[in-house]
């Protein structure tokens, strides 16, 4: 479960921004939205969902992009650029795109994340020097790196590594390592300035098991869909035979509920190029099966839903954290509400899966659907062009701008009581066009 994510000097977020899934104090109601686990006799709570609002170009997608970028860096194990990727979040592979473009000097980029996995609370912090915006020749270095588990320091890395009290985690660390007084010297000798200690020295020397738990969470549990157009389920099949068709029962049942037009939907693998494509499957009059590319026959909304639904299933089945940019794009609100209700259903969501998404659809501004601490806003300053993120619960319940549970959140949002909304009027532009024409 994701608890908190912080970022600083990432694109429009020049100053530190905190995205929290920890329930705010004195929030009551919708208790199904709150998960609870015991960690060292302490009850750790987390929200099961969150929705992010804000005008276009405010920075909503940058928060999701920052999560995706940290994930890519950890899985890569270094802060060097990754291999060329045909993906929308290029900042995850070309790190010179990350620093805020208004910084006049080199400022560190910070990532910090806290999550629960296997009864352990992990907090990982990474500060890196990437140069200024678009400076791909800068000699990059890790400023500091820190791992804390169950509020106990495991390691603190600057130009050297300082180990915490590993005796508290002796079930994950070999006795020889704990007793070896020269191990810290060996670690520091092998330190590389642009490589993560977490996935290199710590993994190979200190604890492969702890490192694996963290890497597995980022690999399998943190599912970030950075752009609405990038939602796709990547399939890997062992049988490369030409035109092999894979029909999934659950996917097709969901598609028929959604309103599919064809007989079935399936992933068809072409043996010539090895690519797997989503197709609509039909039976001809002579009972032969024919596949038509879904892009040709189905609507964009249908295709997007079909690509999204397996990710929802995976999140619910594994207890993952699903983070989606523009969750509502081209999908009917009733289908979206049904998916949200699955995450809010304690009988179904037994493994504590989480859903986080940004949207422009105001229907989710409803006290009967989301708690105040689940509703986030991102706003960009028109003068500084810097973004900030805050929660509806930050307004409190008293005063002129106080927010109470029974308030009409949608109405108040559109009268700019919560900010993160922009007055847009194109009329003067068209008036000028018509004036010039006259």
Secondary-structure topology with pairs:
Layout: E1 2-8, E2 17-20, E3 34-39, E4 42-47, E5 49-53, H1 60-76, E6 109-117, E7 120-129, E8 141-149, E9 152-157, E10 161-163, H2 175-179, H3 183-189, H4 201-206, H5 208-221, E11 222-225, E12 244-247, H6 249-258, E13 264-269, E14 276-283, E15 289-293, H7 294-297, H8 300-318, E16 321-324, H9 333-343, E17 354-358, E18 375-380, E19 387-391, H10 409-414, H11 427-437
Parallel strand pairs: 5-17, 5-18, 11-16, 16-17
Antiparallel strand pairs: 1-2, 1-6, 3-4, 6-7, 7-8, 8-9, 9-10, 12-13, 13-14, 14-15, 18-19
Helix pairs in contact: 6-8
Brief rundown of the structure:
InterPro entries: ATPase_AAA_core, P-loop_NTPase. One of its GO terms (molecular function) is ATP hydrolysis activity. The protein is α+β, with helices and mostly antiparallel strands and 438 residues long.
Total helices: the number is 11
Q: What's the alpha carbon Rg, rounded to whole Å?
A: 24 Å
The ordered H/E elements are EEEEEHEEEEEHHHHEEHEEEHHEHEEEHH
Parts with pLDDT < 50 across at least 5 consecutive residues: 234-242
**Count of separate structural domains:** 2
Largest sheet, order of strands side by side?
A: 2-1-6-7-8-9-10
Q: Tell the overall outline.
A: globular
Key terms:
6-stranded mixed β-sheet, ATPase AAA-type core domain-containing protein, alpha+beta, P-loop_NTPase, Rossmann fold, ATP hydrolysis activity, ATPase_AAA_core, ATP binding, 7-stranded antiparallel β-sheet, globular, 438 residues, 25% helix
Descriptive account of the structure:
- The termini are far apart.
- The chain has helices spanning 60-76, 175-179, 183-189, 201-206, 208-221, 249-258, 294-297, 300-318, 333-343, 409-414, 427-437; strands at 2-8, 17-20, 34-39, 42-47, 49-53, 109-117, 120-129, 141-149, 152-157, 161-163, 222-225, 244-247, 264-269, 276-283, 289-293, 321-324, 354-358, 375-380, 387-391.
- It has 11 helices and 19 strands.
- β14 and β15 form a beta hairpin.
- The chain folds into 2 domains: 1-227 and 325-438, Rossmann fold; 230-301, no CATH class.
- It is α+β, with helices and mostly antiparallel strands.
- It has a 7-stranded antiparallel β-sheet. Strands 11-16-17-5-18-19 form a 6-stranded mixed β-sheet, sandwiched between helices.
- The protein is globular and about 75 Å long.
- α6 (249-258) crosses α8 (300-318).
- Pfam families: AAA_21.
- It comes from Sharpea azabuensis.
- InterPro entries: ATPase_AAA_core, P-loop_NTPase.
- This is ATPase AAA-type core domain-containing protein.
């Amino acid at each position: 479960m994701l608890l908190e994510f912080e970022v600083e000097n990432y694109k429009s977020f020049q100053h530190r921004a905190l995205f929290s899934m920890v329930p705010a104090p004195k929030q009551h109601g919708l208790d199904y939205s709150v998960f609870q686990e015991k960690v060292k006799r302490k009850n750790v709570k987390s929200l099961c969902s969150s929705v992010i609002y804000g005008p276009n170009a405010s920075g909503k997608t940058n928060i999701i992009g920052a999560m995706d970028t940290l994930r890519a860096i950890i899985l890569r194990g270094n802060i060097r650029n990754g291999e060329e990727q045909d993906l929308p979040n290029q900042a995850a592979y070309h790190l010179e795109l990350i620093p805020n473009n208004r910084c006049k000097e080199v400022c560190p980029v910070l990532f910090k994340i806290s999550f629960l996995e296997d009864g352990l609370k992990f907090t990982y912090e990474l500060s890196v020097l990437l140069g200024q915006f678009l400076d791909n020749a800068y000699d990059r270095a890790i400023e500091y790196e820190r791992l804390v588990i169950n509020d106990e320091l495991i390691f603190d890395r600057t130009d050297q590594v300082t180990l915490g009290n590993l005796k508290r985690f002796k079930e994950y660390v070999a006795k020889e390592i704990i007793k070896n007084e020269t191990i810290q010297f060996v670690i520091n000798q092998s330190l590389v300035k642009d490589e993560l200690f977490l996935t290199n020295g710590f993994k190979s020397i200190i604890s492969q098991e702890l490192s694996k738990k963290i890497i597995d969470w980022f690999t399998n549990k943190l599912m970030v869909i950075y752009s609405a157009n990038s939602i796709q389920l990547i399939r890997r099949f062992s049988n490369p035979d030409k035109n092999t068709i894979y029909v999934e029962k659950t996917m097709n049942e969901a598609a028929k509920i959604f309103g599919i037009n064809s007989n079935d939907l399936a992933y068809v693998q072409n043996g010539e190029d090895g690519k797997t494509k989503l197709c609509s499957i039909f039976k001809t009059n002579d009972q032969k099966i024919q596949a038509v590319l879904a892009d040709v026959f189905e609507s964009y909304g249908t295709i997007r839903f079909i690509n999204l639904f397996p990710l929802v299933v995976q999140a619910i089945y594994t207890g993952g954290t699903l983070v989606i940019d523009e969750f509502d794009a081209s999908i009917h609100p009733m289908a979206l509400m049904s998916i949200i209700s699955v995450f809010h259903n304690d009988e179904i969501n037994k493994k504590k899966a989480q859903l986080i998404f940004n949207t422009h659809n105001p229907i989710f501004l409803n006290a009967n659907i989301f708690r105040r601490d689940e509703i986030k806003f991102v706003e960009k300053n028109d003068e500084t062009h810097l973004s900030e993120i805050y929660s509806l619960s930050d307004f409190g319940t008293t005063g002129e701008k106080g927010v109470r549970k029974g308030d009409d959140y949608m109405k108040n949002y559109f009268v700019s009581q919560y900010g993160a909304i922009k007055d847009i009027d194109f009329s003067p532009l068209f008036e000028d066009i018509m004036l010039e024409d006259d």
